[in-house]
Amino acid sequence: MKKIILALFAIAAIGSISAQTTEAEKHLKTQSKDTLDGWKTGGIASLNLTQVALTNWAAGGENSLSVNGLVSLYANLKKGNSTWDNSLDLAYGMLQQGSDDARKTDDRIDFTSKYGQKASKNWYYAGLVNFKSQMTTGYNYTDSTKEEVSNFLAPGYLLGAIGMDYKPNEVFNLFISPITMKTTIVNDQTLADEGAFGVDPAEYDNGGTLTSKGKTTRSEYGGYLRALLKKDIMKNINLQTKLELFSNYEYATQVDVNWEVLIAMKVNKYISATLSTQLLYDHDVDILDKNGSIGPRTQFKEVIGVGISYKF
Fold this sequence. Notes:
By secondary structure, the protein is mainly β. The chain has helices at 2-36, 189-193; strands at 38-52, 64-79, 82-97, 103-118, 123-133, 138-141, 146-150, 156-166, 172-185, 203-204, 210-212, 217-234, 237-248, 255-266, 271-281, 287-288, 294-295, 299-311. It is flat and about 60 Å long.
């Protein structure tokens, strides 16, 4: 009888342990799933300073001081089958050389918000909004004068797109949209009258009298592609690159290109070096070259800096 009672106790104990294990596994699975949901935030901020001071310098040269600041932030939310990704890039730089006035060397605002609903393993139905502009007035300088060529919201670019988002991992992301509207804003009537950045210019009669002001907006409809890669390529070296392509369906062979690269190299917790490049081509933006001819051209900018940075 005792043996039977002991056997029953053993069976009950095994069942209890098994039930506890099953409940623990369920709890761990639920906890693991929960840890994937929620907000992920972070970014990088850097401030680079370069100074040259010359006194009785036989080889010649000029004193100079340059400051460049960069902030790149992200805030991404995952909740079940839904995702919401947000990013903000801000950059600004100034250069003071010799007795010249301080001149702008970098100026950028770039905000993107994207919402997705899971369609399959790595694909999402998604909608995206992107805004680009600058903070302050930009000038073209000659020997004795300066000419205003841009300002805040002159230009400004507002893009809305609906399509599919491919997210195989946290390193790479590809967004493809066949339904995209791109609006160019030129909120400066002088520049709008000139037809800057592709808006319709002002119209004049034969006597030179203004009959119609230049348009301050221009809308285009087409296809859009956005590829984003973020990866630590070596210890303390992070690479971020973004490629954006937009094609107006009315002029399908004219593709607007925006390709940005940011390489951040950490020396220690606060000191780092950054290399950022940006390649632009917009068929609607005319550029005056050194030979005096005007037309669309490939634009390229490079900024190298060593200074204080913080990654979070």
